[in-house]
Amino acid sequence: MKLAIVRQKYTPFGGAERFVARALDALRAQGVSVDIIARNWENNAAGVKCDPYYLGRTWRDWSFARCVQGVIASGRYDLVQSHERIPGCHIFRAGDGVHATWLELAGKPLTGLSPWHRYTLAAEATMFRHPNLRAVICNSRMVRDDIAGRFPAIAKKLHVIHNSVDLEQFHPGLRELHRAAVRTKLGVGGTAPVILSVGSGYARKGVATLIAALAHMTMREAEVWIAGRDKDQRHYERLARKLGVEKSVRFLGAQPDVRPLLGAADIFCLPTLYDPLPNAALEALACGLPVVTTTTCGAAEFVEPGVNGTLCAAGNPADLAAQLDALCRPGAAITMRNAARASVAALDMAGMADRLLALYRHCQRPAAAG
């Protein structure tokens, strides 16, 4: 089987790229020939480089899609799986969810949308309706149900395959390995509750809500650590100052390895506005941290309130503060350690590769396209 995986640009800290990297290793171990189609990839290792000239992000995405469509038409690969919204791909992995849903949740009306948003909406709809599409990989039930509701004709093509977690790299033992050293380095006491949030793009990840929630909390010694990048970070620093919690919020930047932070933290919080299935939440659970996230996050299906974390509505600082206060009580978070780990114990890489391989074989059958 010759498979191509499409991702326009490699970002070292991106969840989609980490999924691809894990899938490549696991699939190649099972004898699948896998190439990458990309503009740029780590170490310039793309199997096919599609890098036509462009100005602006609308032209960027359109020109890349045209290039990939040419590769698909050449018949060079048995299957082309795209992580971008490209009409004509055989398999689409909806790792970024549904763009139309994101716009609705973000409160962006159709009138006045930028050309890029309009292009992305049109490409998404055309892709889901394209006769070449054989399967859609949904990384959460939330995404599957959303697509099925918007495009009922392809309901049978929707397959839930959750992201995998490297259970050997992310485990509860990180607490003993890193907690004391990281807290000493940052000047944080051993008993101060630390709430960790990981992810770039602060608006989507709900960082403003988390900072506002910290200001509402009664547990005044609690700290929030934010690992990730955002071009408007200073806006969030000003918000922390305005709310009087600047000394309790640490912006740690993008981290090539978040394991020491996971080992040092007590709670993982991602009050995201919309997130199909963030790897960071799964990794936190694997490390034994209770996860606090929203009902519009795909990770919610792994969270059992009161057992391994809790759920709240997006954009509600007061509700989030109450949930965090409860988890910050002495001993509350640590009692959820085993349940958190158990909730993702089945998400190993070998299992993900088996499910992907079974789907690819299904898509190769003539009837699969019907």
Task: Explain briefly what this protein structure is.
The protein is α/β, with parallel strands linked by helices and 370 residues long. The protein has helices at 15-29, 56-74, 99-105, 115-129, 141-150, 174-186, 202-205, 207-216, 233-242, 259-264, 279-286, 317-328, 337-343, 349-364, and strands at 2-6, 33-38, 48-49, 79-82, 91-93, 135-138, 158-160, 194-198, 223-227, 249-253, 267-270, 291-294, 309-312. The protein is 41% helix and 15% strand.
Search tags:
single chain; 370 residues; alpha/beta; Rossmann fold; seven-stranded parallel β-sheet; six-stranded parallel β-sheet; 13 strands; 41% helix; 15% strand
Write a structural description.
The protein has about 375 residues and is α/β, with parallel strands linked by helices. The chain folds into two domains: about 1-165 and about 350-370, Rossmann fold, CATH 3.40.50.2000; about 175-345, Glycogen Phosphorylase B (Rossmann fold). It has helices at about 15-30, 55-75, 100-105, 115-130, 140-150, 175-185, 200-205, 205-215, 235-240, 260-265, 280-285, 315-330, 335-345, 350-365; strands spanning about 1-5, 35-40, 50, 80, 90-95, 135-140, 160, 195-200, 225, 250-255, 265-270, 290-295, 310. The protein has a seven-stranded parallel beta sheet with strand order 3-2-1-4-5-6-7, with helices on both faces. Strands 10-9-8-11-12-13 form a six-stranded parallel beta sheet, with helices on both faces. The protein starts with a strand and ends in a 6-residue tail after the last helix. The relative contact order is 0.13. The mean pLDDT is about 90.
